[in-house]
Amino acid sequence: MTLLNILLHPDPRLKKLCDPVARITPDIETLAADMLATMYDAPGVGLAAPQVGVMSRLFVMDCNKDPEAAPDPVVMLNPEITWRSEALNTYEEGCLSIPDQYADVTRPAEVRVSWLGLDGKSHERDFEGLWATCAQHEIDHLDGKLFIDYLSAMKRQMITRRMVKLKREKARA
Known about the structure:
This protein has a single domain, classed as Peptide deformylase (Peptide Deformylase, Alpha-Beta Complex), CATH 3.90.45.10. Helices cover 29% and strands 29% of the residues. The protein contains three helices and seven strands. It has a five-stranded antiparallel β-sheet with strand order 1-2-3-6-7. Strand 4 (88-95) and strand 5 (98-108) form a beta hairpin. The protein is globular. The model has no long low-confidence stretch (mean pLDDT 96).
């Protein structure tokens, strides 16, 4: 497995709509495995393909934060939210493409997601809590939307300025 470079905001690729995955190929299987390795290494609970520069509707997540429990990775190709609860949940979100920046985002507390698995079969599952927040956050990435897009313009600009500064510092290092 290869650890992939995670794009940092602002990067125009993070704001683009991703194309559906046409079929499951060895390259897609390798990408999913590499994305899981990258996500666990970061460490994070979700990672979308555009965050590693691949403009395909694919993301990985594992919101099992119990260190005693076995990993519970989920790989979703062409995911779609088919139902959202009316009940809302506010969660302090972060993003591997916007490191060390966090903000409260309110989203539906529960969602039902359908997707194509690496097994070639259709899957559907209800998610709640952190799993629901993460699925919505990652699907947003596939639609060119970042969690900071839910914030006020002032707060979004402040975070973007910090990220521009971080990218300059990394470029000098």
